[in-house]
Write a structure and sequence with these properties.
globular; 279 residues; 13 strands; alpha/beta
Length: 279
Amino acid sequence: MKLSKYLAVFALAVALVMPAVAGGQKESVSKMEQIKKDGKLILGTSADYPPYEFHLLKDGQDTIVGFDIAIAQAIADEFGVELEIKDMNFDGLLAALVSGNVDIVLSGMTPTEERRQNVDFSDIYYQAVHGAVIRKADAAKYASDPASLKDVMIGAQKGAIQVGIAKTQIKGVTGADVDNNHPQIKELGTLPDLIMELKNNKVEAVISELPVAEAYVKANPDLMLAEYSFEDTEGGSAIAIKKGNEDFVKAINEVLKKLHSENKINEFVAEANMIADTL
């Protein structure tokens, strides 16, 4: 009786320990090993940002293209796996990364200190300048001086670096107030929605990265680029990766280094701009 009792206790202990051991083994599998085992690299992006990532009707199929997509495809090819793309609002990308729904994020994302608290980043792969899209009818008011936007409603993509640029370089916000919502900055999840707000006179300008702004201006004859631009003081675009995957970050940086050495990223940017020009 006592023996059977001890055996029962031992069996229970084993049952409790085994899942923990199995879990530990699962956690010991690196991100690279997991991706190669699954045979796919899952990319998170917000495909409303030409020439970085955007939708294109190709051979009758809705296809996501752009130079971020080309970079992600090159990484997947280097790893010997398929590329799977998940399109979502920009402000939901890092949550999807942290939760494990995507493996990487390429979406013209700037590696700010705030973002670095939650995720890791690759080396910078592209350095951008930002511009202001305005209505042609308002050229006399807003085209030549960024100070003309200081006291009017402007738009920027929610969760994007342009919100901070609008606050600090246009509205003159400083210190802790930078973290607060601004009553004269409309933040929406997608750039098409912001462009529609501009066309409908709901905002006076939309702040966007220059190549992206140029693409929207070419697609909308009633819009134009202001003469001024804004520098990206945060340091360009990088690939976001879930924290704790140092080998994965290193592997991605090696691919980026190779792409830069072969001038591939400049080729991807040029090709994406040419495609965006046809939209």
